[in-house]
Write a structure and sequence with these properties.
By secondary structure, the protein is mainly α. The chain folds into three domains: about 325 residues, no CATH class; about 90 residues, no CATH class; about 60 residues, no CATH class. Helices cover about 65% and strands about 5% of the residues. It has 23 helices and six strands. A four-stranded mixed sheet has the order 3-4-6-5, with helices on one face. Strands 1-2 form a two-stranded antiparallel sheet. The chain is globular.
Amino acid sequence: MERLIDRYGTYILFGAIFLSFFATLSLAPLFDLDEGAFSEATREMLLRGDYITTYLNGELRFDKPILIYWLQALSVTIFGENEFAFRLPSALAATVWVLAVYKFTKNLLGTQKAFLASFMMSTSLQITIIAKAAIADALLNMFIALSMFNLYLYMTKKEKRYLYFTFAFIGFGALTKGPVAILIPLAVFFIDSLFKKELRFFFRSIFDIKGIVIFSIVALPWYVAEYMQQGSKFIEGFFLKHNISRFQTAFEGHGGSLLYYVPVVLIGTMPYTWLVFKSLKRVKEWFEDDLKRFLGIWFLFVFLFFSFSGTKLPHYVIYGYTPLFILMSIYGMEFKKTLFIVPSLIFATILLFLPEIALAIKDSIKDPFAKEVIELSKPYFDIYYRLYFVLFLAILLIGAFKELFDKMSLVIAVGFMFTVGINFFVIKTYGEIAQRPIKEAALIVKKSGFEKIVMYGLDTPSFMVYSKRLVEKRKPKAGDIVLTKKSALKNIKAYETIYEKNGILLIKVTK
């Protein structure tokens, strides 16, 4: 198998990248909230012709810096306003991210480990989801990886060109998502310098004038332009609300315990969860040489920092996945095939019987809208969905208990099966259930010529993308055209139904 990877590894990797990042860009409607919000902000940017400040539903949006919106706007200008165009920048960024992992790992650890790290990363659960999501995270992770790789090369080779590349990529990261792109390289560099007793080198490096100038040229023009345009509203909205407040408090209800990211990592790295256990078991060895110590500090800092953060969202820990997958490649082949497949067996079994599991727990769910969606969702899990996961389970069992696959072949087979299952079946099915009604209602509005639309009882910015309309969020009154959900109808006296599907309604209020 080693000879096969040496000869065909890049083709296998590009096949995985295509299936994971590109093949399904247009398969599902935009998902709310995040994809809808980013895409609508980009649509309004193009409509307004304002390429400095972003707006969502006509109101200022300071959630993220500007770079992802510029890239989405460029893509939409070329390919039109559709799912493919909004998601393409993320898929391209994720591709560069994976290839950077491959090159970095190959140069330091060889072809086999480079293939394993990059293949596992590109086909893991959380990466395959964010890699094509129309949000900023794939782009940010690309810049974090590039800045950290150049930082490591600078720390080991002491060549200034790597330091200047680091400053440049940090600048682009700050233009993508703000201070977190600065924090991670700075903290890891400082902690690693403490271990090596090279604090003088650390301070001399971070205050390098040429490096600071490079960072400033990349990042500061937009920040200055935005401040000149919006003044204190930008400082309060971006820095105070969306950065400092996110760390200090559970922002928008996204809180959790100190152990929040333990299950996130174990599920997010599927189907390679067992290799995470194997790598963590060797955590003491992470500090025995420069590379493993750097990677270990990188992952542990991200994991611990966001564990102590007030706001917790699943994708925050992905900032530490790059080093984790490289560490997994170092210890990756030290597993028993029967144990390796256990997480995937459990996960695939859950997916196979997901409709029945959802119906079984339906009564414990408090949200009436969620209950109704569960009741209506079973027909979407068709025979092809079921057969695929039966096939997946069969291949897992054959691969574990027969000599058909060696360990590397099993990893590749499971990776491809898992990626196809998630992207072509799970995400597609969820999109049909949850988002297709929003898109269809929006297209009705777009064709009908309705000008004023009220959104009541839900928050789905993708509706604005597809309908090309802004909405009013208030209690409906007679004569309003309203997008709502069935559970909110109890507050509306009389109405005519224009469209209804999966608990989503487009109505005209008559009284």
